[in-house]
Amino acid sequence: MNLYFCFLNGIKKMSIKEKIHTLTASYLQEFISIRRYLHQIPELGFEEFETSKHIASKLDEYGISYKKGIAKTGIVAIIEGKNPEKKVIALRADMDALCITETNNISYKSKNEGVMHACGHDVHIACVLGAAKVLNKLKNEFEGTVKFFFQPSEEKFPGGALAMINEKVLENPNVQHVIGLHTLPTLNVGKVGVKQGKYMASTDEIFIKVIGQGGHAATPELNIDPIAISSHILVELEKHFNKNKPQDYPSVLAFGKILGNGKTNIIPDEVNIEGTLRTYNEEWRSQVHEFIVSLASSISASKGGKCEVNIVKGYPVLFNNEKLTGIVNQLATEYLGSNNVENLEMRMTAEDFAYFAQKVPSCYFRLGIRNEEKGITSNLHTSTFDVDESCINTGTALMAWIAVNLASI
Q: What is the pTM of this model?
């Protein structure tokens, strides 16, 4: 008890930055345990029932009020500071896992066959839950209000962010800024990365069905070969895309699945093609949609076939508000030091955090998890993905530090 009293007495004399640092360090093993437990029970999008249950149990333990069942499995928690109405900041963590079988030989390996936290969402939860616990201890020392979004289904269209927004999570009270973080395997542990402006691409899923008339390969005069038609479509799409794509920002049109399901001597009736479009410009995005439909349809018709095109419009471009992200960069530098804050390049991957950024000025930064000495180098979405868990210390403390500062501006 005497030691605990001394600890509390010491805390009272510290700056809020020092308090965040000390509290985070003192609770770190607990936050790591949360991550490891969640890593063992990965769940797919909108199925995060046990994950949500565990988050709720921790919020109960910390004495933090929350609402659950938002967008099916989502949770919104809230902590009010000294002057709750001054400003409202939200910290977001996504909860879902991926359809990947984990091959790591670790004590906290996934127990759900074929499902794995291979994108670090378990780390995101641990950091935001950790920030909630730290900030709850300091709620009489900072201004404003902090909300905590535990969001389902980032990995699966149409995404949980939009579903939560539709259930009014940015209202009552109204949120001014949303802050999110994501693990980055190419960035060393202890560091974070920030990018102002356009950061992550829009993403669309493309489905093309080419319909011909199958038959024996030895009688081509009786067939309308959808495989041959498909090859022409893919070649022409690539030519047109590369010739016309803007040079001032990256764009990708790629097809990863072509299914004809014929045989060496059997021409199938149809071919199904699946691909993705990634870009940073809405006007160009619409143009690509139009010429995919036009080219695929005209080429199919010219060869006697038919074509059905379905383009599923996915997440928009993720835009980090430049003024807010500049402030976040400055705060990260103050907390971690300039050597531990890196400027990032644009990425062709996508994120449904973009929907929050469309509604309010927001910032999405990257958390370094790489440690070559420990062999932690695997990329996202791989069966060997893991993190140096000291990243949780960095992520938790920085989220708390950003929140208390933004809430007081």
A: 0.93
